[in-house]
Amino acid sequence: MRILLAEDERDLNRIVAQKLKSDGYSVDCCYDGEEAIDILSYTEYDAVILDIMMPKADGFAVLRSLRDANRTTPVLFLTARDSIEDRVKGLDSGANDYLVKPFSLEELSARVRVMTRTAVGRVSNVLSADDLTLDSAAHRVQRGGRTIELSAKEFALLEYLLHNKGTVLAREKIENHIWNVDYEGGTNVVDVYIRYLRKKIDDGQEHKLIHTVRGKGYVLREEES
Fold first, then answer.
1. pTM for the whole structure
2. How far apart are CA 216 and CA 45, in angstroms?
3. For the purposes of burial, counting CB atoms within 10 Å of the CB of 11, is it exposed (0-12), middle (13-18) or buried (19 or more)?
4. Which CATH class is domain 2-119?
5. Rounded distance, CA 210 to CA 190, Å?
6. Among the four residues 121, 139, 148, 214, which has the most C-beta atoms within 10 Å?
7. Residue 95, class by beta-carbon neighbours within 10 Å (0-12 exposed, 13-18 middle, 19+ buried)?
8. DSSP string covering 145-181, please?
9. Which of the 8 DSSP states describes residue 80?
10. How is domain 126-220 classified at the CATH fold level?
11. Are 19 and 109 in contact (CB under 8 A)?
């Protein structure tokens, strides 16, 4: 999943981004509200984390711009304001959650997981297809009861495929969700990581889960057509 983090305190921005990346998310960072509004105008995210008190435009303005564009992207507010009135204002303005500084990074991770799975109608951290399971909280993947070790990017790619099980995903769409705006790698990065996943997930298995749809992209499905 791809997350936008808007926080003007640069040390906190860096620490939170590092934690989210270690959890397997692709993270884009910015440091003021105007930049956040600009980025959100042309990029789709699975979640947005907003500091309320930012220069140029505050978190409420960023959220209002997002909602005025009829975007339902889940939003988590980070703020030092801890009064009931501030919390109510944040939630009533269209935010999905509200976390008061200082906060635990583990709690932040848990809240992001809940927020993103609720947005797609899931009640569990576990995604599955056939005998393959992925636990986003435990960061564990198993197939047929066998644990499979994946890199952070492999895990993120598999999670994205499972989120969209049965849907053909174009290479560009996959790249835009798994790699952030600063990525400067090769144009075939998606194909490379699909090969990595196939080797770990499908090699030696009777039923292949990851399929190529010629001219369109890739799909994860439980049964071959």
1. 0.71
2. 22
3. exposed
4. alpha beta
5. 13
6. 148
7. buried
8. TEEE---HHHHHHHHHHHHTTT--B-HHHHHHHHS-T
9. S
10. Arc Repressor Mutant, subunit A (1.10.10)
11. yes
pLDDT by position in tens, the chain (length 225): 789 999 999 999 999 999 998 888 889 999 999 999 999 998 889 899 999 999 999 999 999 999 999 988 999 999 887 778 877 887 888 899 989 999 999 999 999 988 887 766 665 778 899 899 999 878 899 999 899 999 888 998 999 999 889 999 998 888 878 876 666 555 688 999 999 999 999 998 989 999 999 989 999 998 654
Determine how many CB atoms are found less than 10 A away from the CB of residue 69: 11
Closest Cα partner for 212 from 171, 153, 176, 160? Answer: 171
Could you give the CA distance from residue 204 to residue 65 in angstroms, rounded to a whole number? Answer: 49
Integer distance in angstroms from the first to the last C-alpha of the chain? 28
Instruction: Tell the residue number behind the tokens 């997350």, with chain if given.
Output: 3
